[in-house]
Design goal:
This protein is an alpha+beta fold and about 425 residues long. Helices cover about 35% and strands about 25% of the residues. InterPro entries: ARHD_Rieske_2Fe_2S, Rieske_2Fe-2S, Rieske_2Fe-2S_sf, Ring_hydroxy_dOase_asu_C_dom, Rng_hydr_dOase-A.
């Protein structure tokens, strides 16, 4: 606690410092001003921005989170420390680590990690940091390994994280190989998706709260019966939340952004369900008598578009399943990782020539749609950086998904401010 007398002393020091700065050569002034500005705390300004969004206001009266949530580096850092460390975050798909020895690496915020299937067929994850001098142990993005060896000083780790070899330990005291293995990270699968939790023991109510969605997706072959086709990457110049919100808006942007889709998909049939950890849109699929190649891609059996907090999207339509991982790179940059799957029965019952043509055309159509989404989200990001915009309003009849997402995100951010 700062007492009145202390505040007076600090204020006096600031005044003295300001006078001193005025007497300095201009070239030195910017450097000294850092130390002589009136005292304020970064955390208090972040707290103010977080609390600008009211969690309790009903959607028909609520305003959206302020623009700072999408452009302020301090808010982004808070999200990484809380949302992306304490929740289950989608980082890959199971086929990347299907066999013992297979691994892939990634980074969340400043934390590099490696996911691997060990020789006992157990899925594991670790911080990808050597316990000796902090070098990144596994340098490749993915691959197959028998051991993990640091290229700096040769420390070697088994796939279960245990330190296997450390050179030149002569003279070291109170050293235990067991206590110097790679630091573990909680890891699990959810359908074909690999999730990690950097902070925590992997417990909690994620499985219980997402179970209804998982059960519905499993009836559509989510966990089994799908063949991985390919993976694609998109680097976007926008905040990760804009991509989430774009996928949750009850397809209301489709008529404006994806005009070709609006002509073939039965948009009026769309229904939305939103909970704390996920939102879901379902619909009837393409319109009757639609014979285009894109119509075949979407199918007439209906579709499911689901978003799981914080960064996973799942789309099930026609014979296709695709997963979208949103990996934040900065306040205004996000990498999208898209994995495409096809029904095994569809693959088996389609000739190689027809399958190749169908896949090529479908991926071309998907790429077109994704680039339209990326473009509109990047345009919104530019608008959020304008002094003309602070908050917006919700459309109560169709934007329950984004509102619920903001409420849960705001709750998580407030928890982060308290710890």
């Amino acid at each position: 606690m700062t007492l009145p007398r202390d505040r007076a002393i600090m204020a006096g020091l600031c005044r003295i410092g300001s006078t001193f700065v005025k007497r300095l050569p201009p070239v030195l002034t910017p450097f000294l001003q850092v130390f002589t500005k009136p005292l304020s705390t970064t955390s208090s300004s972040v707290t103010t921005e977080v609390h600008k969004f009211c969690l309790e206001t009903p959607i028909d009266e609520a305003t959206t989170p302020p623009a700072s949530w999408y452009a302020d580096d301090r808010l982004y850092d808070l999200e990484i420390r809380t949302v992306f460390r304490r929740n289950w975050v989608a980082v890959g798909v199971a086929n990347q680590v299907a066999k013992p020895g297979q691994f892939f690496t990634g980074v969340l915020g400043n934390d590099p990690f490696v996911v691997v299937r060990d020789h006992s067929d157990q899925l594991r994850a670790f911080y990808n940091v050597c316990r000796h001098r902090a070098n990144i142990v596994v340098q490749q993005e993915e691959g197959q390994a028998q051991l993990f060896t640091c290229c700096y000083h040769g420390w070697t780790y088994r796939l279960n994280g245990r330190l296997s070899k450390a050179l030149r330990l002569r003279g070291i005291k109170n050293f235990s190989a067991r206590e110097n293995g790679l630091k573990p990270v909680a890891v699990r699968t959810w359908g074909p998706v690999v999730l990690v939790q950097l902070e925590g023991d992997g417990r909690g109510d994620f499985e219980e709260k997402t179970s209804p969605l998982l059960q519905q997706l499993d009836t559509q072959g989510f966990a089994h019966g799908m063949r991985h086709i390919c993976r694609r990457f998109y680097d976007t110049k926008c905040n990760w939340k804009l991509l989430v919100e774009n996928a949750q808006d009850h397809n209301s942007h489709v008529e404006c952004v994806h005009k070709h889709l609006a002509k073939i998909v039965d948009l009026p049939s769309t229904k939305v369900e939103a909970t704390e950890l996920y939102s879901k849109m379902t619909g009837l699929g393409v319109r009757d008598n639609e014979q285009s190649t894109e119509g075949q891609r979407y199918g007439q059996a209906g579709y499911i578009v689901a978003n799981v907090f914080p960064n996973l999207a799942v789309n099930r339509y026609g014979p296709w399943l695709d997963t979208n991982l949103l990996l934040p790179l900065a306040a205004d940059r996000t990498r999208i990782v898209m994995d495409y799957f096809l029904e095994e029965d569809f693959v088996k019952n389609t000739s190689d020539k027809e399958l190749a043509g169908f896949v090529e055309t479908s991926l071309k159509d998907s790429d077109h749609v994704q680039k339209e989404d990326n473009g509109i989200c990047e345009s919104v990001q530019k608008g959020l950086s304008s002094s003309a915009y602070d908050v917006g309003r919700y459309l109560p009849s169709i934007e329950h998904g984004p509102h619920m997402f903001h409420v849960f995100l705001g709750t998580e951010l407030r928890k982060g401010l308290e710890t």
